[in-house]
Write a structure and sequence with these properties.
This is DUF4282-like protein. It comes from Pontimonas salivibrio. Keywords: Membrane, Transmembrane, Transmembrane helix. By secondary structure, this protein is an all-alpha fold. It has a domain of 72 residues. It contains 3 helices and no strands. α2 runs antiparallel to α3. The longest helix has 44 residues. The two termini are 15 Å apart.
Length: 107
């Protein structure tokens, strides 16, 4: 709702992050502000997990080496793909909601 205008036609001011975070009427979208940062944090955690899992399995020996070489990269790829798809779906849903809201405000 921050990109829309109020009833007088003047543009509304976007609230600060913490004001929007505790907006009990849910008039501001916080998700779009934190999506990129949260995505990077999740990717970093997945990377750390992947390195730890890779070396843990590598030092186990036997069939674990094969799983470390094939399973860990494949699992990380699938995890990153699913996380990216969920973030894109969430952002797209919010974009649809914003566009619908602006159409409602125009009528």
């Amino acid at each position: 709702m921050s990109d829309s205008a109020d009833m007088t036609g003047a543009p509304t001011q976007q609230k600060g992050f913490f004001a929007a975070l505790f907006d009990l009427k849910f008039e501001e979208w916080v998700t779009l502000r934190v999506a990129g940062v949260l995505y990077v944090i999740i990717l970093a955690l997945l990377g750390i997990f992947g390195v730890v899992a890779f070396f843990s399995l590598l030092f186990e020996g036997g069939i674990s080496i094969l799983f470390a070489l094939v399973g860990v990269p494949l699992g990380l790829f699938i995890a990153v793909l699913l996380i990216r798809l969920s973030f894109e779906a969430t952002v797209a849903l919010i974009a649809v909601a914003r566009n619908t809201e602006s159409l409602k405000d125009k009528s």
